[in-house]
């Protein structure tokens, strides 16, 4: 085993050892932990753009992702049921207001980046929390789909991959690997559904497997979107939080896309 692979395995295990207890615990500890991850992921994005996380815009962007991620109405009972969205809107107004005090150097188009970054991260992590509030099995189901997609795509792509999927975005990904990831996700999901029928939320097995195909595609698309962002800014990883694995965004890019689409189809 190479030193790079050893580092990936060791630090990947450490990251899981930290994440899994919070996932199993659920509730407020899990929600605050995910909120912290959302802020770190947003900081990674705005640093790519050349903004400092400790700048006014950087801090507001991280605050925006935090309030969008957390179910604030559960903590502040005076808030409406969509309290986190209202709070996020207020933060966005504050970000837009930063253009007023810096007209020459900070335009509307520039402030759009921290707003988009906070929304991109916050909406994905918010749905992760919603899934955990509905049940641990919903989060595990999404994790298994993403992991199976990644592993299947790598194994098939590295062996028989010939046709490039999106060479300008991610040169190593192939069409064969993408299809292999979908098949792998289908196999793992079928086993999961047979063991835990409740995760299907009333859908038939055939319908669920069709949805899994969609979820697997979204997982791969989420990975490609982050790859495109990194390529745009000329960076290899979003951050260095997890040695050998990159940043928080590198680890959650697929899940950020999967959880909202799962919620859209009423799985939680």
UniProtKB/TrEMBL annotation:
Keyword terms of this UniProt record: Cell membrane, Lipid biosynthesis, Lipid metabolism, Membrane, Nucleotidyltransferase, Phospholipid biosynthesis, Phospholipid metabolism, Transferase, Transmembrane, Transmembrane helix
Localization terms from the record: Cell membrane
Gene Ontology molecular function, alphabetical: phosphatidate cytidylyltransferase activity
UniProt topology in membrane: Multi-pass membrane protein
GO biological process: CDP-diacylglycerol biosynthetic process
Coiled coil residues, start to end: none
EC number annotated for this UniProt entry: 2.7.7.41
Enzyme class per UniProt: transferase
GO cellular component, one term: plasma membrane
Pathway annotation from the record: Lipid metabolism; Phospholipid metabolism; CDP-diacylglycerol biosynthesis; CDP-diacylglycerol from sn-glycerol 3-phosphate: step 3/3
Catalytic activity, reaction form: a 1,2-diacyl-sn-glycero-3-phosphate + CTP + H(+) = a CDP-1,2-diacyl-sn-glycerol + diphosphate
InterPro entries referenced in this protein's UniProt entry, alphabetically: PC_trans
Chain ranges passing through the membrane: 58-79, 85-104, 111-133, 139-156, 177-195, 201-221
PANTHER family, sorted: PHOSPHATIDATE CYTIDYLYLTRANSFERASE
Family: Belongs to the CDS family.
Name used for this protein in its record: Phosphatidate cytidylyltransferase
Native source species: Streptococcus cuniculi
Record lineage: Bacteria, Bacillati, Bacillota, Bacilli, Lactobacillales
């Amino acid at each position: 085993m190479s030193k790079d692979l050893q580092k990936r395995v060791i630090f990947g295990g450490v990251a899981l050892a930290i994440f899994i207890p919070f996932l199993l615990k659920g509730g407020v500890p899990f929600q605050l932990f995910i909120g912290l991850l959302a802020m770190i992921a947003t900081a990674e994005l705005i640093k790519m753009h050349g903004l400092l996380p400790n700048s006014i815009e950087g801090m507001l962007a991280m605050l925006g992702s935090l309030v969008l991620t957390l179910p604030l109405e559960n903590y502040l009972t005076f808030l409406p049921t969509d309290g986190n969205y209202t709070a996020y809107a207020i933060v966005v107004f504050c970000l837009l207001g930063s253009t007023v005090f810096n007209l020459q150097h900070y335009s509307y188009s520039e402030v759009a980046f921290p707003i988009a970054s906070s929304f991109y991260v916050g909406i994905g992590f918010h749905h992760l929390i919603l899934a955990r509030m509905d049940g641990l099995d919903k989060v595990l189901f999404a994790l298994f789909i993403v992991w199976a997609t990644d592993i299947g795509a790598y194994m098939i792509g590295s062996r028989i991959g010939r046709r490039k999927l999106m060479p300008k975005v991610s040169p190593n990904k192939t069409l064969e690997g993408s299809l292999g990831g979908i098949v792998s996700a289908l196999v793992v999901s079928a086993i999961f559904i047979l063991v835990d029928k409740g995760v299907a939320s009333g859908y038939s097995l055939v319908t669920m497997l069709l949805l899994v195909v969609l979820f697997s595609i979204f997982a791969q698309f989420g990975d490609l979107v982050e790859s495109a962002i990194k390529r745009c800014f000329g960076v290899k990883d979003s951050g260095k939080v997890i040695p050998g694995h990159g940043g928080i965004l590198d680890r959650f890019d697929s899940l950020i896309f999967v959880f909202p689409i799962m919620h859209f189809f009423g799985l939680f």
